[in-house]
Design brief:
alpha+beta, FomD barrel-like fold, 3 helices, globular, magnesium, hydrolase, Nucleoside triphosphate/diphosphate phosphatase
């Protein structure tokens, strides 16, 4: 599998299980790209929703994608600390200068004190029925939600205390 190169600017494409585009982030700078992991950074990037509406992110963010985990993590740097938005999703693929994944609705919002809320359980239930998620996918997603919560509790991977700050410093190097 090809993967993006450090310093390269790519798009991020989020799809739904039915193959329809969900959301596109126009510019993310690659800070690390390997077969297993992609780490990117962006700030005030344009996001386009499936209905064509656009908006601009409000703060710098470090994005973490893993080729073997069914979730991705966005660490947003705000004045009062790092907030995380975690998407339960397929592992990423990289093609046509875009990192792509399937968004499976369930999200976890993590606060600077590492407390969290699981979001969009109703949306997950609705889409599971409407898009006919296979039982195997449902089991994988629930298992990976538990893995994600374990990572949060253990402050593992992108939740490690210095992770976002360290990668943000690298992002600033490229943003000059």
């Amino acid at each position: 599998m090809a993967f993006p190169k450090e310093g390269e600017t790519i798009q991020i494409h989020s799809f739904k299980h039915n193959g329809r585009i969900h959301r596109i982030w126009s510019e993310t700078t690659i800070l690390k790209g390997s077969e297993n992991c992609v780490i990117g950074g962006n700030d005030r990037t344009t996001v386009t929703e499936a209905n064509g509406r656009t908006w601009i992110t409000r703060e710098p963010a470090i994005c973490y994608f893993h080729a073997h985990q069914w979730f991705n993590v966005i660490g947003m740097l705000r004045e009062d600390g790092v907030y995380y938005y975690c998407n339960i999703s397929s592992p990423f693929v990289y093609e046509e200068n875009a990192l792509k994944y399937i968004d499976y609705d369930l999200d976890v919002k993590v606060y600077p004190d590492m407390t969290y809320h699981i979001l969009d359980e109703d949306e997950y239930s609705d889409h599971k029925t409407a898009m006919n998620y296979p039982k195997e996918i449902d089991a994988i997603l629930k298992n990976n939600l538990n893995t994600l919560l374990h990572w949060i509790h253990q402050r593992k991977g992108p939740f490690a205390p210095e992770f976002v700050d360290m990668w943000y410093e690298r992002y600033l190097h490229y943003a000059k």
